[in-house]
UniProtKB/TrEMBL annotation:
It holds the Pfam family NIPSNAP. Residues 183-280 form the NIPSNAP domain. One of its GO terms (cellular component) is mitochondrial matrix. Protein involved in mitophagy. Accumulates on the mitochondria surface in response to mitochondrial depolarization and acts as a 'eat me' signal by recruiting proteins involved in selective autophagy. This is Protein NipSnap homolog 2-like. One of its GO terms (biological process) is mitophagy. It comes from Mastacembelus armatus (zig-zag eel). The keyword Lyase does not apply. Its main location: mitochondrion. InterPro entries: Dimeric_a/b-barrel, NIPSNAP, NipSnap_domain.
Amino acid sequence: MATRVLQRAATGLKQTKNGFRAHGQVSVIARSLAAHREDSWFKSLFVRKVDPRKDAHATLLSKKEDNNLYKIQFHNVKPECLDAYNTLCEDVLPSIHTDPEYPCELVGTWNTWYGEQDQAVHLWRYRGGYPALTEVMNKLRQNKRFMDYRTERGKMLLSRRNQLLLEFSFWNEPVPRPGPNIYELRSYQLRPGTMIEWGNYWARAIEIRQQNQEAVGGFFSQIGSLYTVHHLWAYKDLQSRDDTRNAAWQREGWDEVVYYTVPLIQHMESRIMIPMKSSPLK
């Protein structure tokens, strides 16, 4: 390609009255082509080669010893129905949580304080993975009390959505904790293909953010909105949240984690949530 361009330029030289200018044109073209070749070679040094993998990121990043599956539910409630909705949930959901016939646990249930208003968030854990989820769903269809709850709940909602999640292997498993606390759910929509990279950085970062025991759980989606990550944090109040987050910047390595993970994010959202009375996470 470069040779043909130079040949055409040389031919143009014979047809030009001003030989000096034509020589200059050939020199400019030659320098341009040389620079292009050098630039292409330089860029090739930074092409990221992806090693072939035979494991899904779910297998590489999730905990293997407990086979837990999580479901997170977002319910947008009619403003005038929020109190009645909370009462209904507090009456029915704990009965499923405590019944040994259902292989599931209510990890936490909240109302959003700051973020999307008049919203409830429920987090369930299914010990045994997808088979446990299927068992619970089949049993609930035969549970008249729960089906009545669903019918009544439907009258109070504007919309609802859910996701099935796995927990990152390097995060704590969420366990009941005393209160009072506020909770922050930070949700990240990642660029497709970056989940492994995110996990590699946060496997180190979580050590920095555990010093005040604020880390509750970390999850990534399997069904629903994909390449979504949820980090759940607990704080005594908004001021302690601010102090804790500012203190992280004084610890070695935190700035590097932020620097390298921000480019992986397409969208992020923060919710400050207040536990319902029936929430195991107080």
